[in-house]
Design brief:
Helix content: 55-70%
Largest sheet: none
Order of helices and strands: HHHHHHHHH
Number of domains: 2
CATH superfamily of the largest domain: RNA polymerase sigma factor, region 2, helix turn helix motif
Radius of gyration: 18 Å
Number of helices: 9
CATH topology of the largest domain: Rna Polymerase Sigma Factor, Chain: A
Strand content: under 5%
Shape: elongated
CATH architecture of the largest domain: Orthogonal Bundle
Structural class: mainly alpha
Number of strands: 0
CATH class of the largest domain: Mainly Alpha
Length: 199
């Protein structure tokens, strides 16, 4: 439906609440890719697309519960995805940080190299290839699931602390602590490998 393209997510959810099936399709088109990126980084499954579909089924089922006064649609959506990942972990113990093999298309600006830049673009400089692999390995070694999810959301999906806070249902200071702790552990891991680019 072309008209929906100029509507906000929240307006489209309202149409979904009113029973318009096309609204679910439009939300899927807008958000499936970012959900796929997130879930492919935190689930150890062969096809994260199945989980993307599962999340959208939950969105349709729970649309009547969406409340803009509590969170934006995007925050609410990623909260559902986060809970889906946690449920898989509890039920099947499948959740872990995967190898981040896919290039998600972020551009490296040429400015100071940050963790997110290192993870996001390995195609522009072949010399970075071993660095990218080292960073990925260090992130996989993080023992706390919440730290792995937080660092993926912050550096790869580009979410700020407030958005992650809404997804996790934790305070902003707790989220900042997860990201900083994970970043420090990754830096220490890289230093142990003789790589000191994140200092």
């Amino acid at each position: 439906m072309i008209i929906m393209r100029v509507m906000t997510d929240e307006q489209i959810v309202q149409l979904l609440k009113e029973g318009q099936a096309a609204a679910a399709d439009e939300l899927y088109k807008k958000h499936a890719k970012s959900l796929y990126v997130y879930l492919s980084h935190v689930l150890n499954v062969s096809n994260p697309e199945d989980s993307v579909h599962d999340v959208f089924i939950r969105v349709i089922e729970k649309a009547h519960q969406f409340n803009l006064k509590k969170a934006s649609f995007r925050t609410w959506l990623f909260r559902i995805a986060h809970n889906h990942a946690i449920n898989l972990f509890r039920r099947e113990k499948l959740v872990r940080f995967q190898s981040l093999e896919q290039n998600i298309g972020h551009d490296v600006s040429g400015k100071e190299l940050h963790l997110g830049d290192t993870l996001a673009d390995e195609s522009q400089n072949l010399d970075k290839s071993s660095l990218v692999l080292a960073v990925r390995e260090c992130i996989r070694r993080l023992r706390k699931e919440v730290e792995r999810q937080a660092i993926v959301m912050y550096y790869i999906l580009g979410k700020n602390y407030e958005e992650i806070s809404g997804v996790f249902g934790k305070s902003v200071s707790a989220v900042r602590k997860y990201v900083m702790s994970a970043g420090e552990k990754v830096r220490e891991c890289l230093e142990a490998k003789g790589i000191g680019v994140l200092g």
